[in-house]
Amino acid sequence: IASFGLNEILVRELLQDKAQVKELLSTAFILKIVGILIMGCLIIFALHFTNDEKYTQLMIAIITIGIFFQSFNVIDCYFQSQVQSKYVVIVQFIQLLITSLIKIFLILNKATLVWFAIVFMIDQALLAILLLLIYSWKKEWFSFFSVKWELATQLFKDQLNIDKEGYLITKPDSTETNIPGVYAAGDVKDKTFRQA
């Protein structure tokens, strides 16, 4: 949910518009970060209404932080669009090998469940770091600041209803779009209170 289904859309756009690879990757990365932040806030809000003990809440928080690193999967989309997924497979193999060894160590030492949640977070962080390294080795350093907000709307073109000015259309007095489970808020839909 937090990634807005961007992976498939991003691969398609990377194939169609090779001149804006940096901007597409950076924009999709930021969109995923926004989705994850919204999801994280919703999880934190929902935790206040549960009767779970602090231990369970801690594990949920650690796993939620780990999900942040999944934003870097936009690099996987780049390699898919270049039919070079072998590099991602190598990275995933290294990540799996390292974290599996850590998990075996935890099992042998009868570690508590929180340590496994921490390893999940490390798993995601390690994959993100390795993806950044392989991308910088094969292509260039990943540009976090090449965001083009008009591309944010373009990524959803042919997926979501868009008005003639390029803003996403939502149901009246709602953030709900024409696709169930997909919501729009902020600069991609609001013409009046748009940021500079």
How would you describe this structure to a colleague?
- This protein is mostly helical and 196 residues long.
- The chain contains 7 helices and no strands.
- Helix 2 runs antiparallel to helix 3 (54-68) and helix 3 (54-68) packs parallel to helix 6.
- The longest helix has 27 residues, at 21-47.
- The protein is flat, with a radius of gyration of 19 Å.
By DSSP (H or I, 4+ residues per run), the number of helices equals: 7
Largest sheet geometry? none
Strand content: under 5%
Helix-residue proportion: 55-70%
Query: Which structural class is indicated by helix and strand composition?
Result: mainly alpha
Order of helices and strands: HHHHHHH
Mean pLDDT: 82
Low-confidence stretches: none
Q: Evaluate the radius of gyration.
A: 19 Å
Q: Tell me how many strands there are.
A: 0
Distance between the termini: 28 Å
Shape: flat
List keywords for this structure.
flat, mainly alpha, single chain
Q: Concise description?
A:
This protein is mainly α. The protein is 60% helix and 0% strand.
Produce the secondary structure layout.
Elements: H1 6-16, H2 21-47, H3 54-68, H4 74-81, H5 85-108, H6 113-138, H7 149-155
